[in-house]
Amino acid sequence: MSTRRRPTPEARERMRLAKLGEKNPMFGVVSPMRGKTHRPESLERMRANNLGQSNPMFGKRHKKSTLLKIQAWAKEHATYGPAHRNWKGGRFIHSEGYVLVLEPGHPYANPSGYVFEHRLIAEKALGRYLKPTEPVHHFNGNRADNRNANLVICQDQKYHNFIESRSRKLMKEGI
Fold it and tell me: Residue ranges of the domains in the chain?
């Protein structure tokens, strides 16, 4: 069974005339506007008429009541979060390989409401929020591996750098 739509009568007539070729009554007739453009002075005049104060929309603003209606409509028809067609559950991988999770209420969330997953897991293990100066080290070097056993909470960046250099040495020696 075919699900193809049947052409409308107008479309059938156009197809019939197209098959006629030279016998088509419109064959060889060229549109009077074909290849024509506005003269440069006309283009300049049209541009000038729509610039600045001469533009009929210049200085127009929505009333406050209209703005509130627009905002309410936009909020009701939101296309972000779970309502968005490309929603993937509030998780994505950062360009540097870290996993980000949507946590809008978190005190250290970025402007979009996302927090690094390894920091959330470390905070849950500690029972408090981590300070921004407390880095979390991935023991195996895989930034997407956020198991408790793979995370080390460092007191400061200096200690984190020390751990990083030691891990690189051990990896180089093959231990």
Answer: 91-173
